[in-house]
Design a protein that fits this description.
The complex is a heterodimer of chains A (115) and B (113). With 115 residues, chain A is mainly beta. Helices cover 0% and strands 50% of the residues of chain A. In chain A, strands 2, 4, 5, 6, 9, 10 and 11 form a seven-stranded mixed sheet that branches. Chain A has a four-stranded antiparallel sheet with strand order 1-3-8-7, with no helix packed on it. In chain B, the strands form three sheets. In chain B, strands 2, 5, 6, 10, 11 and 12 form a six-stranded mixed sheet that branches. A four-stranded antiparallel sheet of chain B has the order 3-9-8-7, with no helix packed on it. A two-stranded antiparallel sheet of chain B has the order 1-4. Classes of the chains: A mainly beta (115), B mainly beta (113). The interface between A and B is medium-sized, with 28 and 26 residues.
Chain lengths: 115, 113
């Protein structure tokens, strides 16, 4: 059972570089989301999607882009990385959107360092 | 907009002692409440959730939580903790008007033998 798969697990970038964090789920979940985890700040919602072709902003969307062309995939793009984006990123999916009390299933995280 | 406050960043307890992890939320509409656990170097997994009905919710690994609407709280409890409960615990909230799940800052539970 693959569940939610995130790649890469680790990445080091230089300021100004771009990259994409990949997220794929094989549970046919409609809802997908990206969080970043920073010490003392818990998880903060970056972007989320309630279905293919639909995305919306979370609490901290600046500096990140997303798209949802298929149900399975929800990539997170950093167009010009900054040191403030050094964090651990989690992708999560749910059969039901948060408004319906759905359980989130998390990937194992991607640790990003921006120098 | 909803928000979640976890007042304690760290809670040390002795093995087999009871523990309570506090969570308060703010929202102007009906809410759904969750507790997630994160073991070292892993993603989060659901412990329990409150959607409606009984205010006392039982979850996995012997944890339970009580929804208190008047105090806007959803504290997590366990009567006797084990070394294996060492982890970080996150309270989360979503409301009926938005498809977002918002997390608190987390409480790190450390168990002393």
């Amino acid at each position: 059972n693959a569940g939610v798969t995130q790649t890469p697990k680790f990445q080091v970038l230089k300021t100004g570089q771009s990259m994409t964090l990949q997220c794929a789920q094989d549970m046919n979940h409609e809802y997908m989301s990206w969080y970043r985890q920073d010490p003392g700040m818990g998880l903060r919602l970056i972007h989320y999607s309630v279905g293919a072709g639909i995305t919306d902003q979370g609490e901290v969307p600046n500096g990140y882009n997303v798209s949802r062309s298929t149900t399975e995939d929800f990539p997170l793009r950093l167009l010009s990385a900054a040191p403030s984006q050094t964090s651990v990123y989690f992708c999560a999916s749910s059969r039901l959107a948060g408004a319906h009390g759905g359980e989130l299933f998390f990937g194992e995280g991607s640790r990003l360092t921006v120098l | 907009a909803q928000s979640v406050t976890q007042l304690d960043s760290q809670v040390p307890v002795f093995e087999e002692a009871p523990v309570e992890l506090r969570c308060n939320y703010s929202s102007s509409v009906s809410v759904y409440l969750f507790w997630y656990v994160q073991y070292p170097n892993q993603g989060l997994q659901l412990l329990l959730k409150y959607l409606s009905g009984s205010t006392l919710v039982k979850g996995i690994n012997g944890f339970e939580a009580e929804f208190n609407k008047s105090q806007t709280s959803f504290h997590l409890r366990k009567p006797s903790v084990h070394i294996s409960d060492t982890a970080e615990y996150f309270c989360a909230v979503s409301d009926s008007s938005a498809s977002k799940i918002i997390f608190g800052s987390g409480t790190r539970l450390s168990i002393r033998p």
